Amino acid sequence: xxxxxxxxxxxxxxxxxxxxxxxxxxxxxxxxxxxxxxxxxxxxxxxxxxxxxxxxxxxxxxxxxxxxxxxxxxxxxxxxxxxxxxxxxxxxxxxxxxxxxxxxxxxxxxxxxxxxxxxxxxxxxxxxxxxxxxxxxxxxxxxxxxxxxxxxxxxxxxxxxxxxxxxxxxxxxxxxxxxxxxxxxxxxxxxxxxxxxxxxxxxxxxxxxxxxxxxxxxxxxxxxxxxxxxxxxxxxxxxxxxxxxxxxxxxxxxxxxxxxxxxxxxxxxxxxxxxxxxxxxxxxxxxxxxxxxxxxxxxxxxxxxxxxxxxxxxxxxxxxxxxxxxxxxxxxxxxxxxxxxxxxxxxxxxxxxxxx
Length: 356
Known about the structure:
alpha/beta, 28% helix, 14 strands, TIM Barrel, globular, eight-stranded parallel β-sheet, two-stranded antiparallel ribbon
């Protein structure tokens, strides 16, 4: 019977455990959205994860949604990321890069005045974005034309190629949490007509096109989805149907794993997306959102999941697998330092000493 510490085969990788580090935006990139030595130290500290999924990373210039997030579209960024991949590999770890387009979550003040883009001219409501001029409301995005979408697909392709050059073991395509690909998927944000709107097949077209080209440029590809999550003012009229349709068709893409946010971070949308995913998707299934070690162990032992990704608990506990192994208490995360610059609340969380 498998548990959190049972090795797992993922493509060409042999993972020593099933305790994954979820992608966590931390806003520590340097000028020009370049990853630096501090980020390398942070990820290197967490190399005991079965797999690290590095944070949301811009595939194309001019699509910043977090101000100090990293990119992977320039040579300087590739070289910066190489510091991280080398640090993780030196420590015996494995790491993939999450490829991301912020879509309507971007803001003109973060992108030289450029209007954000999305499937339809519908703004994110009920939230604000951090900018150099303080918190600001999101703006109405410009509706992308059909003839602009091939360039975005190509942007993901180039980003996957760059991630491979930077030494990553693979990539995870970000199709969750209301960013560009997710906003096309869900009918609360996609009101367009034509080949990329209307039916589930049309709304999923952009994502499937991205997966097809990304899979040609990387040794390993995963996908993150969040059909129930209301973050970034997202909704869908049939999230279970959407996930079921996708899970069946993802088997036709070179996808090693599917990474699901199992619920709604806002607590509004209820449903079970894990069961249809397990029923229809034939690759490795990973879930995230609020798992304890005990619940994760039980889900893996029951065969409901192959691995579990931990977010804030990994943020605050660089040695999370060892703490789980010993049954040791966990450090509490400090939300005030989640997005602040510098090492405080980033690389200074304590680890356990040697086992007595």
